[in-house]
Amino acid sequence: MQIGVTSDAAVANFCVFVISACEIKRTALQFMLQDDYETHEWSELDQALGRMRERPPDVAIVDRVELGDADARLMDRIREISPKIQVVVLVGSISEPEGACWLAQGAHSLLPQPLTVEAVRRKVRLALGLRAAIGIGVGTS
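and the corresponding structure tokens:
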């Protein structure tokens, strides 16, 4: 049973790959997403690409370190194996100069750090084409 998951999300079986050499980032992202999505973590891009042939994910969150210097060939390899995949690039800051290059090469969006549960889940929902959940904060005076 998934707690706090809407019925449409519980019925759909979306798959997310998290690709990063940093074990802390991978584990944190998997923890943030595992309640809503089938989430797999990979330490190397080549490992993930091999698995994509067997089980294509709907979304891949790829650490900028794994992509190198905005290498178009890597985005092309990902698209060749899984044409419908949405790639979200994990960046240190939204203002990184390589960010625009990755977006131009086909990345769906950028996910800046520090990571929060709300931001990560929102980015994945948007990449899947689902409505972003709107949270209304309740404050006390």
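(Above: one complete record from the training split.) The mean pLDDT is 84.
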